[in-house]
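Reminder to self: tokens first, then the designed residues, so the page reads top to bottom the way the pipeline ran.
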């Protein structure tokens, strides 16, 4: 299997929605964006692969060193690393946001709750929004600066949606990635969340976060409409957020359960339509 084939296969299994979105990109940019997203997926998976935080820290630092050109050993022996480094060189991508993405994932290795909305938005900005800004630099560097607003709001909306879906999964493992302050403001405690108790306060906080997701998604859609057509496919997955929010709202009585996933063909159709017509 070629390096590009390995990266695409890895991304398809590890981050299916972003893989589908790359299929809407021009072929000459697709492998580069897939390398970027595969790197993100690999770093995100460290928390599930590392048996303890110290081992996860070592892997995160390995990525940071590799990106900064300070890696030890055969760094390019990892096809994802090789593809990412080639992409950085070819498109002259800034390495600082890529290193910050890995650094931000150190939070994942521990059991501290996400304290507040400002902290969550910073985390989402570095782990999610940055991906779309960097993808814009690959696809259309001359217009990429104008994608900052769309990338910022879309990243927060997508991160909120993903962590709302994974609330029960993470709570069962002693983790909370959603802002604790929103729950406590509604009378829910961290113990309620980690114990899987669907109190009225928890349900109210969850509804508030779904509405916040919708607000950011709406701002992202407005920003994408102002972008040149060349950049719009990067944000095609915006099309999935309204239906996801509706499914989350419909499960008000089961806040710790994840909604059923849309069929792959429905996701592809929604993203293709959004990419062609606009969000």
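Designed residues (279 positions):
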């Amino acid at each position: 299997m070629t390096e590009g084939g390995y990266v695409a296969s890895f991304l398809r299994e590890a981050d299916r929605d972003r893989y589908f979105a790359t299929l809407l990109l021009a072929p000459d940019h697709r492998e580069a964006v897939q390398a970027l997203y595969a790197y993100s997926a690999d770093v995100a998976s460290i928390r599930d692969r590392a048996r303890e935080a110290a081992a996860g820290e070592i892997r995160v630092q390995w990525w940071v060193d590799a990106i900064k050109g300070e890696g030890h050993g055969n760094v390019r022996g990892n096809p994802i690393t090789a593809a990412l480094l080639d992409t950085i060189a070819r498109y002259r991508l800034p390495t600082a946001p890529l290193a910050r993405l890995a650094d931000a994932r150190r939070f994942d290795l521990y059991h501290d709750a996400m304290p507040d909305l400002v902290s969550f938005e910073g985390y989402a900005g570095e782990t999610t929004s940055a991906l779309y800004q960097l993808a814009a630099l690959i696809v259309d560097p001359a217009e990429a600066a104008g994608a900052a607003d769309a990338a910022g709001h879309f990243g927060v909306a997508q991160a909120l949606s993903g962590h709302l879906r994974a609330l029960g999964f993470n709570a069962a493992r002693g983790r909370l990635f959603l802002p604790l302050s929103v729950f406590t403001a509604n009378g829910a405690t961290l113990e309620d969340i980690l114990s899987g108790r669907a109190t009225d306060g928890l349900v109210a906080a969850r509804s508030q976060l779904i509405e916040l997701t919708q607000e950011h998604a709406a701002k992202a859609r407005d920003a994408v409409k102002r972008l040149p057509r060349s950049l719009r496919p990067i944000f095609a997955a915006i099309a999935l957020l309204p239906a996801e929010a509706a499914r989350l709202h419909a499960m008000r009585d089961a806040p710790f359960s994840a909604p059923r996933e849309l069929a792959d063909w429905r996701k592809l159709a929604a993203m293709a339509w959004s990419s062609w017509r606009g969000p």
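Residues 111-279 form a domain with the Farnesyl Diphosphate Synthase fold (CATH 1.10.600.10).
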